[in-house]
Every structure is written in structure tokens, then in C-alpha cells.
Amino acid sequence: MNEVYAFIEAEKTTHPVAFLCQLLKVARSSFYAWQAAAKARAAREAADDALAHEITMLHIASKGTYGAPRIHAELRRLGKRVNRKRIERVMRERGIAGHTRRRRRGLTRQAKRAVPAADLIGRDFTAHAPGTKLVGDITYITTGEGWLYLASWLDLATREVVGYSMADHHRATLVVDALKMAAGRGRLKPGCITHSDRGSEYTSDELCREIRQLNLRQSMGRTGSCYDNAAAESFFAVLKEEIGTRFWPDRATARAEIFSFIETFYNRRRLRKHPEWGYLTPLEIRQRHEQGHVLAA
Question: Which of 126, 163, 217, 282 has minimal CB crowding within 10 Å?
């Protein structure tokens, strides 16, 4: 109907409005109401254009990964009160969309004679404080030189990547080095649970020995059940979808970009919804916990 009214507006200098409305079978009162609302309509369109510009900047800053929920959260953090449905509409009208996650092929290969640890997590991927529950996993990255393997340990209280390691193999030393990094940052509490799948890297003597030396507790999910380690696998899904690259020319380039993604974006900039505190970065969630601990002390 807006197109009809716009046509009448354009032709009213050559033909009477009454004639045009009768010809196009619309009420004159409706046309005049549309005409009176033109200024308000133009103001709304200008406001939408301004909002679209802000959304585009935030979308680019997120490497093209943020959808409406996290764009809405970012705008609120900037002190801008905007209805989420309006953000969804503006993004939809301008073709701005976040990334969706793809399924990945797992690397889990259980050692034949290994004795797996008990499951101390039980699919409860929450923690009351940082340094009490970690989940770990391994994934592969495709490069022109062959696969680059990435092992990580994720803190369930903050979803911060506290330890990670990359190499051209996925032997036990890969996960041990990642755990040493997590422990070296001084954020693991005695008795901290280290949960993983039953892959040979995690049932290895090297990792079991390191866990004992660090005074941690080992935990493993069931064989063939991706849901028992879903939080660790979720991080890799986020990384592969949001890093913005599908193929690297060499391992060195891939290592540099993965390091940048984890340290400068995922841990410090990427928003996720905390059940109590709303949208925060992993670093901000850890700082909230630390402030609460200081106040309690």
C-alpha cells in the first residue's frame, strides 16, 4: 500500500488527489494520513540507518559472528537501550547474520588397555568458583603443511581457556603441555577436576602422572558419548565457526591466528550469557568471582 500512496504523492501535481484515489480504489483520508506521517516515517528510517551502522561495526568487530542476542548485549554495554526485536528486524532487512555451528569429526581413540577414570562431572558443566573444574579436548586444524592439533583446557566457572597447546601431532605431550600452562597461570585449586573423553592421550601415563603431581583429580566421560564432554567440544565449534578462516597456508600462520583468537577475542572480548550476571566475557566473569571472594574474605 505504501507504493500506491507514493505513486499518488508523485502524480498529485498533474492529477487531482480525489481522481487518483478513486482510480486506485483507496480512501482519500488514508492517503492524507499516510502523508501526515511522512516526517515520522523518515525519522524512523534515519534512526534505523544509524542503528544499522552501529550493528555493522559491532558485527565486524566480532569477526562476523555475533547474532542479534550478542549485538543487543553489546549495545546495552555501550549504554544504548534498543529493543531486541528491532535489532533482529534491522539485521534481517540488511542481511546481517551471525554464524551457526557445524558438526565436527572427533579424534577420540580409546587406548585398548587403559583404565579410565570415573566420571566426576556427570554432565554438570557448571562450577561454583574458577579453578575447580576443567574440561579438555583435542581438535585438528587444516593447513597447507598438514594438520595442526590443538589441545585446550576450559574453566567451567568462567568458560575461559586457561591452557592450550598446539603441535603437528596429538600425542600425550600435547595435552600435558596444555595442562601445565593452565597450572602455570596459578588459577587451579587443589583437587581441581580435569575432565576429558577416554582418548589415548588422556588415559596416558604422562597425563595421569602430571595430574597427580599437580594435586588434581582426573575425570572421564563414557566411550562414544559426545554429550559427556559437550562443553569442551562446544569451544572448538565456536573457534572453528568464528575464527573466520577455513584453511591456513602453513602451521605457523594457523598458530598465530588461533593464539590471537583465544587471547585477544575469546577470553577478553567475546560475550556469553552467564545465568546470573547476563552477558559478560570470560575474563569479566573471572573478575566477578575474584571480587566476590575478596568481599567474602
Answer: 126
